[in-house]
Amino acid sequence: MSTKNRICVTIIFLFHLVGIIGFIIPSLTALFITLVPWHLLLMLGVIIYSHDAFNIKFLLFALITFIAGFMAEYIGVHTGLFFGHYRYDSTLGAKLLDIPLMIGVNWFLLIYSVGVVLRRSRFNNKLIRMLAGAIILTMLDMLIEPIAIRFDYWHWLDGNIPFKNYACWFVLSALLLFIFEQFKFNRQGNVGPTLLIAQFVFFAVLNLMY
Questions:
Q1: The whole model's pTM is what?
Q2: d(Cα 65, Cα 176) in Å, to the nearest integer?
Q3: Mean pLDDT, rounded, of the chain
Q4: Nearest to 43 by CA among 188, 185, 151, 195
Q5: Which is one Pfam family of this protein (predicted)?
Q6: Measuring CA to CA, which residue among 22, 19, 108, 98 is closest to residue 59?
């Protein structure tokens, strides 16, 4: 592992560990909720720094993923067509058209991370990688949902998480992973996989605690 990758992996590990502690300790929870957007921005910086070629191709992929994720959430919130009927609360920070800007960043981070994981795997078939990645991200969303509701990331207007949410997560993830595949990035280091694992651990631990 290169020095650059070691730095990035250490940052991911430490900040997720500190985040778990902050969300668990009641006296710190309110503070750590306000830090969520900054945490996502830090992870964005880590991924950008770790990528082997910060160029127009990488920036274009990031922009497409951000816009596609943001627009899907916009349609979901304003029409209920995607995901179900929900609204974003304040935890994810600044909003544009009632959608947190960080949600686009989050889609980029998730798609990039799982895309890198599967490009590093033994799956040689692009379709299998897309479907496997979509399953992984849908499983992650199942862990995210209870915590997101508890800590005011978003809330469901009818009080229940609809099956439609998971179906749309799967479809959107598969479509964005299809886009990832078109860019044919070189094999990346283990920073993306580390971030994905950290997300699973973070939300799994909080689900156990709450």
A1: 0.96
A2: 7
A3: 96
A4: 195
A5: Caroten_synth
A6: 108
Residue pointed to by tokens 């795997």? 121
CB under 8 Å to 194, separation ≥6 — which residues? 8, 9, 12, 13
Count of domains observed in the chain: 1
Helix orientation angle between 126-150 and 191-209, rounded to the nearest 10 degrees: 40
| Phi-psi sector, 159: left (phi>0), alpha (psi -120 to 50), beta | left
C-alpha atoms less than 13 angstroms from C-alpha of 189 in its C-beta half-sphere: 18
SS3 86: strand
Structural tokens at position 140: 């992650």
CA atoms of 147 and 154, how far apart (whole Å): 10
Instruction: Measure the CA–CA gap between 89 and 167, rounded to whole angstroms.
Output: 23
CA distances from 20 to 15, 38, 63, 113 (A): 9, 15, 30, 20
Non-local CB neighbours of 185 within 8 Å, separated by 6+ positions: 51, 53, 57, 58, 61, 115, 116, 119
pLDDT at 111 (0 to 100): 98
- What is the separation, in whole angstroms, between the first and last Cα of the chain? 36
